[in-house]
Structures
1.
Amino acid sequence: MGSINPPFVVFGYGSLIFKPPPHVQSQTSGFLKGYVRRFAQKSHDHRGTPENPGRVVTLIHKEDWDRFSRSDAFPDEDIVWGIAYTIDPEYEAEVRDYLDYREKDGYTMETLDVYTIEDGIERIAIQDAFCYVGRPDNPSFIGSEPLEDLAQRIWASVGPSGENKEYLYRLAESVRQLAPASYDSHLFALEERLRELDKTASDDR
């Protein structure tokens, strides 16, 4: 008998949460341990342009982030909530190609464990899920920026996929809906500041 390949499971922590990949058989909300989600990746092709790149989230190992993120306002977070999607095996190759193209601006595929909480107990829900990570050595990685500078950049940037702030707003709302314990101080602080910028711009009209 031939061996059966394990299912292709991809963990989404950014736009994949609110814009899932095609041919999903099932999905599971869960979280990663030992990582942070930060707007530390330039977006030249979706939420910005080569001349004026926007900012999108990437997943970064906590120890890597601690080495160069002295301006980070939330140093103690190391849990990232998202969604693990199990892809129909018949379409695995097609979905891999789709994701490789969608995440082409500096992202690398890694495998990691996805956790969940059941009856108050933490356990591994999925082992070795695939995930696209913007490693610190990729050319689009921008690293840590002061929150105000980052908010201004996101608020003003626009790319082929739309306004950068719309990406942030949709991500923040989606993260809130994942689970009662789902929280992201960095994301929600940026959302609050962008709402303030929206209000200021509206009042000035």
2.
Amino acid sequence: MVFYFKARPEAGDYTIFMGIDKHENEELIKYGFPEDIWFHVDKMSSAHVYLRFNKGQTIDDISEGLLEDCAQLVKANSIQGNKMNNVDVVYTPWSNLKKTASMDVGQVGFHNSKMVRTVKVEKRINEIVNRLNRTKVERKPDLKAEREAVNAAEKAERKQQLREKKQREELERLEKERQAEIRSYKGLMVSENMTSNKQIAATSKSLQELEEDFM
């Protein structure tokens, strides 16, 4: 089961989601999207909360409001962290999550610690948590199928881009050949004209010489 929430409307149409338990978290880790941003209470047990961005957006595009929504939600879903003030929440792109065979279910590390950011949550803000909970929807998605659909769409897009690139290159090649033919034709015309003038001059000279010989 996955819980889905809607971020504050003024921040845009964004979905925040988390797994119901560590086994669901394992699936979310495995089948995340490149645009997903992962949140977790630092050094404490908590839910794995994700923010799904639009394609092309990165962690640098998180607004202050979106960051606050995600941080408040992950704090509220930490048994220990929910009771404490001044809690650190870490967040990083899904692609930076590292999973090895030796890790427990639901446990993750990072490929690059420099890509992990931290935000401090001073206290729980019930107004934010309650607003998010009012948008809560429970679903049991086929995460693998969703990821495979995204992979297929991305593959098709890459193929289309490659086809368009080849078409542009072919058009450019044909245009270069056409321009080369035009230049070659113009050069040929000039060369022929120059040759004809020489031939005329040579012929005239020969006739003059013949006349002199005749006289």
3.
Amino acid sequence: NDTKTLKAAVLEWLVPRGQAVIPPLSRNIKSNRGFNHEVTGALLCPAGLDWLNAETKQSLKSGETAVRGDQWPIFLYSGYVYDSEDPWKGLLRSEILIFGFKHVFTSPSSVDKEPKATRSGNAYLHGMKSVTKGSLAYIAMQARMKSDPSSSSVFSRTDTVTDSENFYHSILDLLEDPDKSEEVCDLMMWWTRWVFPNSSSSQCSISKNSTLSKIRERRAALRER
């Protein structure tokens, strides 16, 4: 189970390769992570809040600002950039999530390798040929838990501090939202191409006159009314 080694591995992904985390973080201690550290605090800061604002930072550190599970951290976004005008832009496409997914579902050694059209480690052994909505929500939750000392080390219904269950289900709800089906389809295709480039799921396209294309056309027309 490579989730056990994820806590230590996350430390290597917090900053660009070749750079050092300052102050240093221990692989075996989580107490100095979360909002207690400048780097992890910035990544865990809810999208829409400004970590560089002194009052915001202190409020998050002290716990005065309670972060609920549906207040997603900035590390879920590509480049750790949140666009308030387009909250979907870059969502669930961050480097930490890619590394975390490959670490758990393919193999730890695959993190540093480019995706190839070959069998994909742990996923192949379990018959996994594409990235699923549940697996994506799960890895996002795991990355959050490993970066935050206040969260439990396992997925628990009693985790009221970081609200992990709410976090997991809020992401899953978005991915299963019929109104977001086109965006989600593009997202899942993007993920599958990254992790399983040889999968038919990563190469499929929608036929011009297919039933699915007709359904999408009708949905688009209804939205414009």
4.
Amino acid sequence: MPPPLRLDPERSERLAAGAALLRGLTEPGGLSASTRMRWCLRHPFPKDQEESPATSDMAPGCALVLVLMLMTAALSRTGAVPVPSASRAFPPARGCHMAQFKSLSPQELQAFKTARDAFEDSLLQKDWDCSGRLFPRTRDLKHLQVWERPVALEAELALTLMVLEAMANSSLGHSLEQPLLTLQHIHSKLQACVPAQPTAGPRPRGRLHHWLHRLQEAQKKESQDCLEASVMFNLFRLLTRDLKCVASGDQCV
């Protein structure tokens, strides 16, 4: 039976250091390139051991460090450093947690139904005529990119809150108390999902631009009565379709 293999202390130390070096190359948060290079420079192999098994254990680690640093320098000098693609222009916002709003509780939905019923009763006492639709039935957040949906919902929700808060001083104030609290809570959570757009970055285009412009213009052109009607009759669509779509993320297709 051959005698057990024993490593001299110097070789054991080099093997342990080599393992740490290679872990630094592959693990996230490992050693920096400059740290790894300094290690290699400070641990030169004696000339009489260059071909020995004891020193060859460390050669791949330092060689890999040198190769990686040379490749990085070459890519940087030629301008071939990878850049984010257009699809990653707006990465998922941190702290965005909307999954809880995929469906509201029956009690919350009942509060909205009570408010809408009270509003419909109040319409019988008004003489109003609203020709246009602020929220067309053809509008669907599924037609937008995933990052655009929170932007569209935030604008829709902001207008809804503005109109309902103005109505809180009317005879409908009591029935709007709970719906307003729910919408304000949703809006506060939604803020974390709206991507911050740099000054020189991409601007809303296509459908999103059209929808945002439509909401902005409505505040200038529509009467208060028509805004109230549009918002109240859009409540359940906002809660059961638009909000659910944003809460579902890329699963909303």
